[in-house]
Structures are given as C-alpha cells and as structure tokens.
C-alpha cells in the first residue's frame, strides 16, 4: 500500500535537544532512520567498491547501508565518532560486504589522498566516491563567523572534495562515478548558515564543471541536494528551539530521514544512471530550489 509522505516518518515538534559538534546518533530523539530495517537491495552495485566520507552517521550511514545491500564493499571515512562509525561498519558486514573504517580529518590533503590509497589497497580498487562529509555552524551575524571557521568550513566542505576527486580519478576507469552532497542551500541559502551555504553552492558548481572535464574518460559526476534531514548535524549546530521545529517549514511538513536520501545515491552510483552526469537531484521535502 502507498504511504502518505507527510506521516510516514516522525513529524515535528521534536524534543528540544542540543549536542556538541559533530554530534552523535545515539543521543538523538527520535533516532534517525538509516534504512536499517527497510532498505532492500537488488544487486545494483554488485562488485563495486565505494569510498564514502562522513559515513559514520546521517546520510553517509544510510548510503553505506544501501550500497552494501546492493553489493558494494565500503570504506567508511569519518572524523572521530568511533562508536557511530563502528555501527555503520556492523551494518555493512551484516550485509555480507567488506567494511574498512578510517578516522581522520579530510581537510588535510594528505589524509584525503591516503583514503583513496587505502581503498585501493585494502578493497582492490575504487568505483564510487561519495563526497558527503560537511561542517556546519549557525550564526545570526557575519561578525560571529571567525576567519578560522570560514576557512575550516571551506577546507572540509569543498577543498576536501577536490583532494579526494583528484586522487580517486587516478584509479578510476570508465563507468566509475563520483557523487557529491550539496544542499538546497546551494540555490536557496539560509542566511544563518552563510559559510556552509556558500560552500554548498561551490559544490554544485564543482560537480557541473568536473562532470564535463572527465566525461571524455567515461566517468560520471553528479550531486544530491538534501533539504532538512534529521542527522546529528542538526542538534549539534542549531539552537534547541530550531531543532524542535526542524523540517516543519517544508511542504511535506517534516524533516527527511537519511534513509530517504539513499535511493538517489544508489541511482547515481549504478549503471542505471549511465546518461546522467553533471546532474543535481533535489531531495527537499517539496521546498523548491530556485
């Protein structure tokens, strides 16, 4: 039976809650849905090897679970949320796939390049790169944003995508794919997320340009633009009253769950999207990307 998209997942208000960045899944109420009990694979990524950044929680965990159930082995890149990352790895292994767990800061170009090398060495290659990790902070004035925070946001959100893509492309063959996470903020920026939103606009542009650059190699590059999604980023970077009503301003009246993003990432990594490159897929609960 069809599900009503307005009520198929939790609706606001959520309990008021806050965490310290980067946030942890187990402290969230309600717990995010990553597709642990719902995602059913059908071999769409059989034999593929994927590197996913920010795969410890949120969208990254949902993508890792979906990829594994579709037949892919996964390198799980994350900062320092060790418990969350091991939980993601457990789901990947339960799907019968290999999981490699690697902590570290992707804004460091040497670490970013080492992730690609580790994927190739330990898993045997790289067919899919998912650039998903991101840094976000909320501010009501530009004066609240330090030079250091502005720089760090760019280094994590967009510079790391450049480092990783450049390194991965050296090993990728025709049919390989890169999937970047941008945001609704790329086209409809929230003023309180000035640094984050600016980087997300850059990611959309980077995706479109790189897609054209590597098309002659038979490699595709696309991006997914989430709207408000219930991940640890939310209670760890937004005021408690914003968290309480998070997602309520969408036409569907609620935040999205990470599990609702995973099918878009599977499509873009699969051969079913063979004529899609330079594309941006919005998953926004009905909020338009102007």
Strand and helix layout:
Layout: E1 49-53, H1 58-69, E2 73-78, H2 82-94, E3 99-103, H3 109-123, E4 128-131, H4 147-169, E5 177-181, H5 194-214, E6 220-226, H6 233-237, H7 240-244, H8 262-269, E7 280-283
Parallel strand pairs: 1-2, 1-4, 2-3, 4-5, 5-6, 6-7
Helix pairs in contact: 1-2, 1-8, 3-4, 4-5
The description of the largest β-sheet is: 7 strands, parallel
Q: Which descriptor suits the 3D outline?
A: globular
Number of helices: 8
Major beta sheet, strand line-up: 3-2-1-4-5-6-7
Q: What is the averaged pLDDT score?
A: 96
Strand share of the residues? 5-15%
Question: Helix-strand pattern, N to C?
Answer: EHEHEHEHEHEHHHE
Share in helix: 25-40%
Distance between the termini: 33 Å
The radius of gyration over CA amounts to 18 Å
The number of distinct β-strands equals 7
Summarize the model shown.
With 290 residues, the protein is an alpha/beta fold. It has helices at 58-69, 82-94, 109-123, 147-169, 194-214, 233-237, 240-244, 262-269, and strands at 49-53, 73-78, 99-103, 128-131, 177-181, 220-226, 280-283.
């Amino acid at each position: 039976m069809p599900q009503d998209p307005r009520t198929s997942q939790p609706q606001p208000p959520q309990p008021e809650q806050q965490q310290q960045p980067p946030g942890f899944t187990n402290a969230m109420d309600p717990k995010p849905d990553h597709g642990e009990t719902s995602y059913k694979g059908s071999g769409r990524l059989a034999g593929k090897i994927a590197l996913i950044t920010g795969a410890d929680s949120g969208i990254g965990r949902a993508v890792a679970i979906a990829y594994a159930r579709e037949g892919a082995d996964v390198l799980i890149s994350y900062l320092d949320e060790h418990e969350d990352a091991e939980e993601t790895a457990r789901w990947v292994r339960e799907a019968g796939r290999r999981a490699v767990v690697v902590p570290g800061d992707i804004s460091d170009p040497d670490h970013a390049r080492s992730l690609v090398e580790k994927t190739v060495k330990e898993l045997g290659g790289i067919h899919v790169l998912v650039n998903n990790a991101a840094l976000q902070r909320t501010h009501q004035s530009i004066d609240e944003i330090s030079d250091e925070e502005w720089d760090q946001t760019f280094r994590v959100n967009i510079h790391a995508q450049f480092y990783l893509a450049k390194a991965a492309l050296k090993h990728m063959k025709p049919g390989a794919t890169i999937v970047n996470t941008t945001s609704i903020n790329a086209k409809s920026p929230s003023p309180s997320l000035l640094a984050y939103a600016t980087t997300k606009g850059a990611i959309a542009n980077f995706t479109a340009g790189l897609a054209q650059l590597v098309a002659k190699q038979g490699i595709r590059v696309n991006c997914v633009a989430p709207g408000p999604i219930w991940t640890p980023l939310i209670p760890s970077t937004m005021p408690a009253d914003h968290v309480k009503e998070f997602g309520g301003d969408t036409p569907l009246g609620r935040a999205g769950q990470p599990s609702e993003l995973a099918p878009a990432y599977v499509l873009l990594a699969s051969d079913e999207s063979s004529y899609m490159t330079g594309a941006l897929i919005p998953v926004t609960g009905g909020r338009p990307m102007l």
